[in-house]
Amino acid sequence: MNGYVICACIIIKFRKPPIQKTINRLKEICTKESITFTQDGIDALLTVSGNDLRQSINNMELVHHMGSITKENVFDTCDIPYSTSIEKLIQAILARKFHDAIDYIDNFVDQGWSRSDICLFIIEHIKNGNLDGFDAERFESAARVRDALATRGISLSR
Length: 158
What we know:
By secondary structure, this protein is mostly helical. It folds into two domains: 19-77, Helicase, Ruva Protein, domain 3; 83-151, no CATH class. It is 60% helix and 0% strand. The radius of gyration is 18 Å and the shape is globular.
C-alpha cells in the first residue's frame, strides 16, 4: 500500500418521502408522544426544516420543550422569520417596490438576522415551492453550497 490510504465510498441517494407521508408521520409521533399540535404547527415544522423528516423531528423535540407544536412556537423557537414576512419581502421585490423591500430587510436586520441569512431565507422559501412562477431547481445549487459549508462548520452569517 506504500503509505497510501485507499478509501472506497458509495454514495447512496434517497428520495424524500411525499409531503403527505411526512405530515402523517409527524402527526403519528405527536400522538404517540402525547404532544399537542396544530396543523399550522406541523406545516411550520416542515417549512423550517426544508421538508426534511429527520430535521422536522429534531425541531419538533426542541419546540416541544417550549410548549405545544404551533406555528408561533416553531418560528420563535427555531429563530426563523415567519414565512409571511419573507413572502412580503419577495412580493415587494417582484413588484419593484424596492423602498418597501429595503424596509423589510432593515426590519429583519433590526431583529438580529444578517443580510446573508435573509438571502438564504429567500432561497429556501423559493426552493420549497412557496412562490408561483419560480423554478426551484434554479436555486438548488445555492442551497447545496450553503449545506456543504455548514457541514464543514462554515456559516454564511456575519
